[in-house]
Amino acid sequence: MKRLYGSEHSGAKNTIQCYKSYTNEKTHQVVLDNAHLLPTYDGGQNGEGIAPRYCPSITKKVEKFPDRAGHMVWLEPEGLDTDIVYPNGLSGPYPEEVQLELLRTIEGLEHVEIVRPGYDVEYDFVDARSLHHTLECKRAPGLYLAGQICGTTGYEEAAAQGIIAGANAALAAQDRPSFTIDRSDGYIGVLIDDLVTKGTNEPYRMFTSRAEFRLSLRADNADMRLTRKGYLAGIVSPERMIELELREKAVFDGLETMKKFRLPVNEW
What we know:
The chain is an alpha+beta fold. Helices cover 35% and strands 7% of the residues. It has helices at residues 7-10, 25-33, 58-64, 96-103, 155-173, 187-198, 222-233, 238-260, and strands spanning 2-5, 18-22, 72-77, 85-88. It has a 4-stranded antiparallel beta sheet. α2 runs antiparallel to α4 (96-103) and α7 (222-233) runs antiparallel to α8 (238-260).
């Protein structure tokens, strides 16, 4: 088992030490021997639930990659003042006694005790094609949805939708124009446009590769792309708007200076 990082490496205060370990052949045998104990979900093909493609359970990893001798397990403390550690990478709703047997096959966890066993959550979601780009329901005006209910997976995806849905709910209550972001303006726009125009048949995750304009959707120009839109929607402060205008002027002045700068070819 190896330490991933610790406070003595970063020099920062209030940090925690994380470790990593790996599953092994014994772990994989426990996984396979008890696969029949896993619940059968509704939905998906042959009654199997469709789990997030990018957060596979330990069962899926063992079944799909039988050639792998081990899969990484991140051991993450739950906080600064607790001894509870979360083993990231071992998700799966096995019975508690099987989970304990599985954990104790892993290096560093030979004497581990379970505080709370792992579990799965099955949930329903709406067809996002039934939503406007504001994330308002077409059939239920005034109802705005965001997060897993729209068919996405991931914290950032949910937060992005929450910004749009929350802003538009507030704007609608004030009879003000709605707030949307285009695909060319930001990744939030790409995510929502994908969902409401194409829908999804599996938990949706946002990737830069989904954006046609990804070369211009950069962190260094996010303020110039989005701050003014946010200000007009009432979710950006006047102080930030002033900072944006100062930057816009500096960029404009810089471009004008460059346009006026000329040298003969032989002097470059």
